Amino acid sequence: MNGAKVAQKSEGGIMNDISGRILTADGWVDGRVTWQDDRVAAIIPEDVPADAPYILPGFVDLHCHGGGGADLMEGGDAAAKIAALHARFGTTAMLATTMTDTVPAITRAMRDAGAVMAAQAPDQAAILGVHLEGPFIDRTRLGAQPDAAIPASIPLVDDFNALAPIRVVTMAPEADPEGEVTRYLDGKGIRVQIGHSSCDYETAALAFESGRHGVTHMFNAMTPLHHRAPGIVGAALAHAEHAEVIPDLLHVHPGAIRVALRAIPNVYAVTDSCAATGMPDGDYRLGTQPVRRCGNGVRLADGTLAGSCLTLLEAFQNFVKIGLSIEEASARTSTIAADYIGVWDRGRIAVGSIADMVVLSQADFSLQQVVLRGRVREGANP
Predict the structure, then answer these.
(1) Which of 154, 180, 266, 355 is deepest in the core (most CB within 10 A)?
(2) Measured on CA atoms in the order 179, 180, 186, 190, is the torsion positive or negative?
(3) From 38, 272, 339, 356, active-site residue
(4) pLDDT digit string (tens) for the chain, length 382 residues
């Protein structure tokens, strides 16, 4: 059948299944994937109709500020609203992402995100932790971040991490010139990324060799590539193993995306989404900044791009549109991100993995269903 169903009652819970063209961790299988409670139980080859849907791993977003009118920096239940909005579009796991702001404001956002994580609701994408984007950035490369940048601090990182687990930190090398905080975070297994920085090629290249693992929104808010001053972009293309990219085809030209894909082994999509995601055109907030959504762009009053209104469903569709295979587009919207933060039971369909899946039409890659920790819901489409 096309779609999920309750197949049978099994000891320990309900056994469910779904049929189609399944992209498993070992490649394509036509047949059924079954799960019990929230874990994949079996992948069973069998004949399926020629137009059977694609069943792919649920999307994983490591850089997400908002959605559904909510912004993480508001605190309260904002993280819950954001996770619920993105789950409708196939994101099954995510990192709640902060903005540069005062220490009390970031503390509130971290504390309340931690509370939402502890009370995870069944209709929400799993919040796996926090991406701390700022306040350890360079004032000359704020992008849409408020001017509240400060030097990196181990005690402050520890204070934040006690409120909600930090999985990724965006940090300008200028904020940690001796690399002390970077080495500390690296020792704790927290990924450190270069972003919002004006450093030169040599500084960035050294940073990649000494603990910084990736790049935040590649090409945006960083020194560009020039043949006599390669900048952070050049250092990333030459040395980085991982990099985020925002594939809304507005932040980065498709040609530049392909350059990054060719040079950096593990490029993965993020949304960098704000409160305007899933909402109509109009006025919203990104942290303390007023922003306006118009079409597929979100901008400050001066025209600066301010996050995005992208979903990972659209990111997947855009990857395919610019020429990536279904397999590669899926890996770059799920598996690579999960592996990057060491979450081995997400971002893949395999026996024992979390039953997080998206069911897409063969005809146009529209989202038919989302399987979220074993619960089936109808998908939304932009």
Answers:
(1) 355
(2) negative
(3) 272
(4) 455 554 444 445 678 999 999 999 999 999 999 999 999 999 999 999 999 999 999 999 999 999 999 999 999 999 999 999 999 999 999 999 999 999 999 999 999 999 999 998 999 999 999 999 989 999 999 999 999 999 999 999 999 999 999 999 999 999 999 999 999 999 999 999 999 999 999 999 998 887 678 999 999 999 999 999 999 999 999 999 999 999 999 999 999 999 999 999 999 999 999 999 999 999 999 988 899 999 989 999 999 999 899 999 999 999 999 999 999 999 999 999 999 999 999 999 999 999 999 999 999 999 999 999 999 999 999 8
Domains of the chain (ranges; CATH) run: 3-56+348-378 (2.30.40.10), 59-340 (3.20.20.140)
SS3 229: strand
118 marked ligand binding residue: no
Token digits for 319?
């990857």
Best CA proximity match to 332, nearest among 59, 128, 129, 66: 59
Alpha-carbon span 327 to 316, nearest angstrom: 10
Task: Check whether 133 is labelled as a binding-site residue.
Answer: yes
Edge to edge, the sheet with strand 191-194 lists 59-64, 91-97, 126-133, 166-170, 191-194, 214-215
272 is catalytic: yes
Name the DSSP class of 306: -
228 is in an annotated binding site: yes
Cα gap 18→32, rounded to integer Å: 5
How do 266-269 and 214-215 pair as beta strands? unpaired
Helix (H), strand (E), coil (C) string for 157-204: HHHHHHHCCEEEEECCHHHCCCCHHHHHHHHCCCEEEECCECCCHHHH
Q: Does 213 belong to an annotated binding site?
A: no
Nearest Cα to 332, choosing from 220, 246, 250, 256?
246
CB-based contacts of 80: which residues, under 8 Å, 6+ apart? 116, 121, 124
Q: Which residues pair with 67 in a beta bridge?
A: 70
Look-up of token digits 């069911």: 359
Kindly report the pTM of this predicted structure. 0.96
